[in-house]
Inverse folding.
């Protein structure tokens, strides 16, 4: 099946610094990628939808100036957490949508393994 | 808005026991329904899906039937194994244009622990 990778798998940074997380689709081109945040023992919450070559669409309550998303190519989307604070510590997960070949088949989303961010 | 409600865990079962994880949804349209599984230390994997009422999704011995009348998509397996221990997420998605799935809305996840 389709493979999505994330880098790094975990990162520790100091409060006030910025951190970039990469999401790559390894064997397919993804016109759309999604960024989720998962808190301990809670579900995934969609943060934003990233479309290649255009601005990301953010969910209500997500600060677009704090969580910068760039989808510069069909295989790479990046999430940059700017001026990170301890409350930004979380598990960030991306998914990539495989366009597929059949119009009437719902597009699959493939998930990366996640990135654990800890802000000290 | 659309939402998914699934039973809280953890669910602890002995090997070969019958599994049911309840999931109900609220949606204005005709969503596609999914079960995802997250094994320890790994990303989410699609377990099964159903795209219209009365469809049954199945994979690896797991089954779920899209019940429009009860707005449910309960996950079942006749005989669980230790290797099934994981967190299971129920999710829905709008069909979107051309059948494409749009954003996924997840339930809170249910931890399943299977003991030998």
């Amino acid at each position: 099946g389709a493979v999505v990778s994330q880098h790094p798998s975990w990162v520790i940074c100091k409060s006030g610094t910025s951190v970039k997380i990469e999401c790559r689709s390894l064997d397919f081109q993804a016109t759309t990628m999604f960024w989720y945040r998962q808190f301990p023992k809670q579900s995934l919450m969609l943060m934003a939808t990233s479309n290649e070559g255009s601005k990301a669409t953010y969910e209500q309550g997500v600060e677009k100036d704090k969580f910068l998303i760039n989808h510069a190519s069909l295989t790479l989307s990046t999430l940059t957490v700017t001026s990170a604070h301890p409350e930004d510590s979380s598990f960030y997960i991306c998914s990539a949508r495989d366009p597929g070949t059949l119009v009437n088949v719902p597009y699959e989303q493939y998930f990366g393994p996640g990135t654990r961010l800890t802000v000290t | 808005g659309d939402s998914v409600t699934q039973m809280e865990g953890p669910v602890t079962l002995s090997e070969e026991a019958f599994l049911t994880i309840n999931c109900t949804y609220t949606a204005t349209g005709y969503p596609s329904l999914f079960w995802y599984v997250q094994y320890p230390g790994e990303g989410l994997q699609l377990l099964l899906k159903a795209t219209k009422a009365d469809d049954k999704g199945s994979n690896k011995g797991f089954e779920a039937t899209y019940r429009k009348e009860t707005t449910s998509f309960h996950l079942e397996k006749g005989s669980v194994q230790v290797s099934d221990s994981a967190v299971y997420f129920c999710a829905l998605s709008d069909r979107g244009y051309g059948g494409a799935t749009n954003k996924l809305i997840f339930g809170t996840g249910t931890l399943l622990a299977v003991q030998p």
Observations:
- Residues 7 and 40 of chain A are 20 Å apart (CA to CA).
- Chain A touches chain B at residues 4, 6, 34, 41-46, 49, 93, 95, 97, 103-114 (CB under 8 Å).
- The first strand of chain A starts at residue 4 and ends at 7.
- Chain A has a mean pLDDT of 88.
